[in-house]
Amino acid sequence: MDLSTLIKEETISLSLEATDKKDVISKMANKMAQAGYISDVNLYTEAVFTREEKGSTGIGFQVAIPHGKSKGVSKPGLAFARLAQPTEWQSLDGQPVSMVFLIAVPEEQAGNEHLQILAALSRKLIHEEFRNQLMSAKTAQEVLSLIKTAS
Q1: Closest by alpha carbon to 88, among 13, 14, 18?
Q2: Chain segment 93-147, per-residue pLDDT in tens
């Protein structure tokens, strides 16, 4: 799966200021709405928060991949944020999160699309070099290039 087709420059934040993980998710969801991926932010964020209650999406390596399937999503999309301050996420390794990928999938496409995006992201994020490149990227365009070349 080519993840670069799901993400736009306007859904990338290189120093997102947020108070907690709900604030991170809400701010990223608003950017996805502005980019045309989400039609109803409240409906979508409710689905993401419900998913977070079932188990943390903090996968370790200071990375979280929150996601939601919702009727509030217009088309599959991806957002990336590097956080201004590490944020507690109840991650598997107990460490706070510094990078977040937010996945949005329309409810009717939930099954397969959602798993394909998660699998593709996980395959990239397991590599320390890729994570380090994301942490040091200076522009949204650079993040896009990293995601495209890693696809």
Answers
A1: 18
A2: 999 999 999 999 998 875 677 778 888 888 899 999 999 999 999 999 999 999 9
Tokens of 93: 């390794």
Q: What is the pLDDT of residues 37-77, one digit of tens each?
A: 999 999 999 999 999 999 999 999 999 999 998 999 999 99
Q: Is 67 a catalytic residue?
A: yes
Domains in the chain, start-ordered, CATH in brackets? 9-149 (3.40.930.10)
Q: What Å distances lie between residue 144 and 44, 81, 114, 148, CA to CA?
A: 24, 12, 20, 6
State the catalytic residue, choosing from 8, 27, 31, 67.
67
